[in-house]
Amino acid sequence: MATNRHPIELIGAQTGNCLRVAIALEEAGLPYQVRLLDLRQGNQRDPAHLALNPAGKVPTIIDRLGEKDLILSQSNAILLYAAEVMPGRLLPLDGRDRAAALERYFYFLTDVIAVSHSAFFLRSLGNHEASAVLDERSNGALRDAARFVKDTRYMGGNSFSLADIAAFTIASARRRHIDWNADAHLSRWFDEVEQRPSVRKGMKAFKRGDG
Question: How many domains does the chain have?
């Protein structure tokens, strides 16, 4: 653990975006403390939170670095920041392996997670037909990711990386839509990642209220 620094304050709730950040901080060995927001009560729209995150969303982190705090409020940027702070923990150091892991990371962000979020938004507007189309597209991309772990241990290669964090959180949320018996490689990968201590702790971070 990186104990010679102030804990990062992680502000959020039990959402996929926030869980990805918690897992990343755990995996990177960065100390952090959770400030839990009640989204149903509208805590994300309180003036104090809007001063940190004008969009009124989660997660947000505050990293107290000397005279000026670093505030980040995009989950994917936070994951990349954690990877840069702790080199080698979340992305391979080798340039070729790093590029492969980043390719898979962005695959899950754009082809799976972003599409799933769009489906959720349309569903909230009552457009169930369009949301169903997007859900199937997202699920199909997730199922197709089985090819990534056919010959390697993890999604981005033989080292655990940001790609696995992105893949696992959306796979966990969509697990009932996946036929786990259809592909032994995808099932093996999911079971292994689910048992990682950092993943288990990160998935519970917003239930216990601290890092």
Answer: 2
